[in-house]
From TrEMBL:
InterPro entries: HNH (IPR002711), HNH_nuc (IPR003615). The keyword Nuclease applies. Keywords: Endonuclease, Hydrolase, Nuclease. PANTHER family: HNH NUCLEASE YAJD-RELATED (PTHR41286:SF1). GO terms for cellular component: cytosol. This is HNH endonuclease. It comes from the Archaea.
């Protein structure tokens, strides 16, 4: 209720100006923080300041690339991020030539891809690293690699194209008595 003079005054009809520090829910406005990638200063509301602050999408992408590799990646399955080592370049080139620079599963050519297909280890390098009998470079044999386009490479990595199917496409026999622990035939006397 208002007294008659206030009603005539009409000052009660205008809501108060509640901006900035006068607003009851004011929490200080933007704060200045440093980008965790490039150290540039950037203004953010406190509700948008998290564990990592990036000033741009470029910095965010760089941070993601650095943080989500190796054991930091949610899909990490072991192994190392170091180079594949001696012999990899030669066996990669030999596989591309053997497979005529096309995906052995679907037949997509390097011209259709706009680049060479990926060369996939049928038995992953990490299995050789974990083995006490083999070295990492033992994975780099022509019988253990195939050329695959990116979609087929992903399928192979996630088990939707079996190792047996891939070995069959390159003519490696899995039948016979003399097989090593990785499933391909071993030379006589080894």
């Amino acid at each position: 209720m208002y007294c008659p003079s206030c009603v005539e005054n009409e000052s009660w009809r205008d809501p108060p100006e509640l901006e900035g520090a006068d607003h009851p829910r004011w929490n200080g406005g933007k704060v200045t923080v440093d980008c965790d990638v490039c150290s540039d200063s950037v203004e953010r509301y406190p509700s948008n300041v998290h564990e990592v602050v990036c000033c741009s999408e470029d910095c965010r992408g760089q941070w993601l690339s650095e943080e989500f590799t190796g054991e930091g990646h949610p899909n990490w399955a072991g192994g190392g991020n170091e180079t594949y080592g001696k012999g990899w370049a030669a066996v990669r080139e030999a596989a591309l030539e053997r497979d005529d620079y096309q995906c052995v599963h679907c037949g997509t050519t390097s011209d259709e891809l706009g680049r060479n297909p990926d060369v996939h280890h049928i038995v992953p390098v990490r299995a050789f690293v974990a083995s006490e009998e083999y070295e990492k470079t033992d994975a780099h044999v022509l019988e253990n690699v195939v050329s695959l386009c990116l979609p087929c490479h992903r399928k192979a990595e996630f088990g939707r194209i079996s190792a047996a199917t891939l070995l069959e496409t390159i003519g490696v026999s899995r039948s016979g008595e003399d097989q090593n622990e990785f499933g391909w035939a071993t030379p006589a006397g080894s």
